[in-house]
Amino acid sequence: MVAVDSFTELLDPPVYVVTAAADGQRAGCLVGFASQSSLSPVRFVVWLSKVNHTYRVARRARFLGVHLLRSDQHELAGLFGGETGDRVDKFARARWEPRGEGVPVLDDACAWFIGRVEEHADWGDHVGFCLTPVDAAAESLPRGSLLTLGDVTDLRPGHPAP
């Protein structure tokens, strides 16, 4: 196996808060694996850990919310990245509103979109959710204003990695 640590250490992508609602349950988590995956039609993929509470709710959801945070929102990232919905109602401690299909949208996110789940890709300990954006909003921010993976390396996941 080829070590890719020297490659991935150069990366500092934004992190995302992904939210879902299904069967009367809400869930949300901090995600480091996500990217636009197609231009036409526009598609975006978020990867959720199979051990995560959000994954279990998202598998039943038709739509997911994907949020970007500003670099000064470490505390909000900590709520969604360091707690588990199995034990904590994260939405009781965050400002949010239900949007289309009841998807929780975080009021304090600097940008968000709701995406219709088109398909899933299961290639290991994470499952990719391919989304088609159906609603979105964003603030105008200068480059370098987003919370990135390098900003949250101190967080410990609510669920340990498998």
TrEMBL record:
<protein>
    <submittedName>
        <fullName>Flavin reductase family protein</fullName>
    </submittedName>
</protein>
<keyword id="KW-0560">Oxidoreductase</keyword>
<dbReference type="InterPro" id="IPR012349">
    <property type="entry name" value="Split_barrel_FMN-bd"/>
</dbReference>
<feature type="domain" description="Flavin reductase like">
    <location>
        <begin position="11"/>
        <end position="156"/>
    </location>
</feature>
<dbReference type="InterPro" id="IPR050268">
    <property type="entry name" value="NADH-dep_flavin_reductase"/>
</dbReference>
<dbReference type="Pfam" id="PF01613">
    <property type="entry name" value="Flavin_Reduct"/>
</dbReference>
<dbReference type="InterPro" id="IPR002563">
    <property type="entry name" value="Flavin_Rdtase-like_dom"/>
</dbReference>
